[in-house]
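step 3/5: co-fold with adenosine-5'-triphosphate
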Amino acid sequence: MPLEIGERWKEIVDGLYTDVIITDKEGVIVYANESTEYWFNMEKRDIIGNSVFELEKKKIFYPSVARMVLESGQKQTLIQQTRNDKKLLVTGNIIYDSKQNIEYIVCYSQDITEIEKLKSYIKKVEGELESIKKELQFYQKLQMEDSRLVAKSPKMQKVLSVMDRVADTDATVLLTGESGVGKSLLAEQLHKKSNRKGEFVAINCSSIPESLIESELFGYKPGAFTGASQKGKVGLVEKAQNGTLFLDEIGELPINVQAKLLMLIQEKTFYRIGDSQPREVNFRLVAATNVNLEELIKQGAFRKDLYFRLSVIHISIPPLRERQEDLLNLLMNMTERFNKRYDRHKELTHETIDCLLRYSWPGNVRELSNIVERLVLTIEEDVLLPEHLPENINTGHLAAPLIGIGHKSLKEIVEETEIRVLKDARKKYISTTKMAKILKVSQPTIVRKLKKYGL
Ligand SMILES: Nc1ncnc2c1ncn2[C@@H]1O[C@H](COP(=O)(O)OP(=O)(O)OP(=O)(O)O)[C@@H](O)[C@H]1O
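step 4/5: write tokens
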């Protein structure tokens, strides 16, 4: 029997945006308001008088909340999917008769289609955001590493490409180059690129007294010698397990330790001092030096066999004066870095940059870094002028002949200096006659030299 409700009530219930469906205790629908038609895309007359069990079978109300209330005898709330693909949050409430038996079940819904869509959209966006965040962190890290290592010049690009090719191998690498060219930084970079899980363990062979270097490297057994710790000591070789052992200034390694290092490289085993138990290790060895090891071999101060073992991959890092592109980049990079670090706003004028570019940087990147840091910290004005530079840099080209001693022949040094002076003069004076006059040579000499050096 359809349920008769008063006109006023009908008006109120029909005015509701939500559907209201009333079912009797047998599961027959006895009332449905106007909104029901819209919610279920059906005429009221096809709903009223039908059994919720039948409608559930036809998947019109699926699952049927009224059926569940009847079965459980309790109020129920569930999510229903309609035939027109709406997602509804349906609640079924009980109306009891005077004897507290179920008389009617009143069901109403809330359309959560959009909320559900939004939820899954948010979930998707959150997932995408998370992966973008991770990607960003990865690139930020790379950028940080990259911004530290400046290597844009063709010569450094070549160095990096060799490093890339050998990074994930076990091959021992020997890095050579003048002091301050970046050997330690590149050794670290090589470790990062190697994806080895262990640590990067660095030791400067020249900074440890000869008598201690063996125990530093190989460690010792408890009480191995007078003054040794009772606990014994783990050496750097063991600390570098599964990582990289970086031996800086390898030329300073005492000859007796060289023999032990050779055994370590060949056998991958070593003994702690005072121990008869060999220990196995797995690490990548990177060595660096700014001295000519072949010269040391001739003097009997370095083992030839060790040299061959160390230099399986020999990477020579060019001095800064041979990579002008890097010099300019480093200059800009370091000014920015120190400005940030010390909260300063220093700028370099063209003339200052010119002076710095003309200087030959015998101390390489380390010297450049020290000078830029000092300028940023000590000069009061924000604009850094040539007169703020140390005297030897302000007239940098004059210091040039001293550069490269030990690495270059006199002829090479003289030629480099001549090139620098000629370049400088060419910038200042347009005619070769004027250049000749200033440099106190004949004009044909100037022309010949410009031609010789391709200037
Ligand atoms: N290509 C580069 N880009 C950025 N910074 C660099 C570069 N090369 C070197 N540096 C910086 O210059 C300084 C000296 O570099 P590093 O200690 O690696 O030189 P080195 O060749 O190992 O010197 P030494 O032979 O004296 O041990 C460090 O502060 C390093 O970070």
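step 5/5: annotate
Residues 7-111 form a domain with the Beta-Lactamase fold (CATH 3.30.450.20).
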